[in-house]
Specification:
Elements lengths: L1 E6 L2 H13 L4 E6 L9 E2 L7 H10 L4 E4 L2 H5 L2 H7 L4 E2 L7 H4 L1 H11 L6 E4 L2 H11 L3 E5 L8 E4 L2 H12 L11 E5 L4 E9 L4 E3 L4 E2 L2 E3 L3 E4 L4 E4 L9 H20 L6 E10 L2 E8 L7 H7 L6 H9 L8 E2 L5 E8 L22 E5 L2 E3 L5 E3 L3 E9 L2 H14 L13 H16 L1
Parallel strand pairs: 1-2, 1-4, 2-3, 4-5, 11-18
Antiparallel strand pairs: 6-9, 7-8, 7-9, 10-11, 10-16, 12-15, 13-14, 15-19, 16-17, 19-23, 20-23, 21-22
């Protein structure tokens, strides 16, 4: 099997790792890849959004199918182009990818389909924003409708903060064109949960759930980031629980039906960011691809032997998965993201990285790294590495991740020491309750 892997971050490194775990004979061509992926694949210096060049590579190398990691090439219509060339590709069309690229579109679709989500008002002027804030009330959430690299969501405690955030998006262009339309949304109470669904447009397989950590600093303080760590599985969503059927029946199936009704069926990986409220799970957002850094824990936690690569290839070829199911998992995985100095505002690049020999119970996924002229590994982005610990429990996985994260060296390294804190607190309370009984 020969696969073209599009992308060059930590998520794509994890995907390459899983492809080779499923079948060590798989030949991977990555564009552009990174130094970590290069140990598993042939990397070509082609941008993930250079659709013409990617079509040429896929044809020249006679790849069996293409796996798209990031959202930008999907928004650029890579799936449309490949399908027009009759080349199998895993990922939604440009129109179907609007589930991620336009929060305004997605909110309207959810309202129409009866998918549980927060109340929201779509605005294009500050006058509309003022009226929406008065209607929704504080606390509230201001969201840029378009793609903003995971940073276009601002939680506001007061109406004044909400107006300031919307002004920054609409008038000051802080998120570029992504903020030309904003959503004023009610604040939802609860815990967030990331759920991933491998889908052919009708039937879906649910992967192990995960919970990520967006804030830069311990205790969920500091600025929002693309994600500072994640763990899987989550005790709030045990295997074979009613939660899975609720999400299938109230979120996934209605959304896929609504997309088919619009003649823009969604195939690929549907990421549902959920808030577990007192009224049940509600959708915070959809993404149209694997998450980062959640992929770095979901794929290692997924039970060995499950042919996820084979199922992705079937979806890429337009074949049916035939049923809905939630896949089984074994053990636990927790990843700690190591970020560069200055991240997320102005990450510094070029700092030399030293990685000790990696033990068998740890995986190191490269995200923002490159080789300099001398061949040394150096920082090349905001989020540099994702250090995934494996274990029989989240506690064991956390200990292994944190220990090795501390052993990796580069100047200005930033990372959180409390990844998984909610899960560990839950387990501690359960243990105390069991002891008291």
């Amino acid at each position: 099997m020969k696969v073209l892997l599009v992308g060059g971050g930590g998520r794509e490194h994890a995907l390459a790792w899983r492809l080779r775990q499923d079948d060590p004979r798989t030949e991977i061509i990555a564009a552009p890849g990174n130094p970590g992926i290069a140990a598993l694949a042939t990397c070509l210096p082609i941008a993930a959004t250079d659709v013409d060049a990617l079509v040429t590579v896929a044809r020249q190398h006679r790849v069996d199918w293409t796996l798209v990691g990031p959202e930008a090439p999907l928004a650029a219509g890579i799936a449309d182009r490949f399908r027009a060339e009759r080349m199998p590709i895993f990922g939604p069309t440009r129109a179907a990818a609007m589930l991620e690229t336009s929060k305004a579109f997605t909110k309207s679709l959810m309202f129409d389909a009866g998918v549980p989500t927060a109340r929201a008002v779509t605005c294009e002027t500050l006058y509309e924003v003022e009226r929406a804030i008065a209607e929704i009330g504080a606390p509230l959430v201001v969201k840029a409708s378009g793609l903003a690299a995971g940073k276009g969501v601002i939680v506001c405690e007061t109406a004044k903060e909400g107006l300031r955030a919307a002004t920054a998006m609409l008038s000051e262009n802080v998120f570029g064109d992504a903020g030309n339309t904003v959503l004023i949304e009610e604040f939802m109470e609860g815990e967030e949960l990331s759920m991933f669904f491998l889908t052919d447009g009708e039937f879906s397989y649910a992967l192990p759930p995960a919970q990520d950590h967006k804030r830069l600093l311990d205790g969920d303080r500091g600025p929002n980031t693309g994600g500072m760590g994640a763990y899987s599985p989550v005790a709030l969503a045990p295997p074979q629980s009613d939660l899975f059927e609720t999400v299938f029946s109230r979120v996934v199936r209605p959304t896929l039906e609504a997309m088919r009704a619009r003649r823009t069926p969604f195939t690929g990986l549907l990421y549902a960011g959920l808030m577990l409220t007192d009224d049940g799970p509600k959708v915070v957002e959809f993404n149209c691809r694997f998450g980062d850094p959640e992929t770095q824990v979901v794929l290692p936690a997924l039970q060995a032997g499950l042919p996820i690569s084979e199922w992705m290839a079937k979806v890429a070829r337009g074949e049916s998965l035939r049923a809905d199911s939630n896949l089984s998992w074994q053990g636990a995985a927790l990843t700690t993201v190591l970020a560069a100095s200055g991240y997320p505002e102005k990450p510094r690049t070029g700092d030399r990285i030293e990685i000790p020999p990696t033990p068998d119970d740890v995986l190191v996924f490269h995200a923002g790294t490159k080789r300099d002229a001398a061949g040394s590994l150096v920082t090349a982005g905001g989020r540099v590495l994702a250090v995934t610990g494996l274990g029989d429990s989240v506690e064991q996985a956390r200990d292994r991740s944190q220990e090795f994260a501390g052993a990796i060296r580069f100047d200005g390294k930033q990372y959180r020491s409390d990844i998984g804190w909610r899960e560990l607190a839950r387990r501690s309370e359960v243990a105390k309750g069991a002891g008291a009984s």
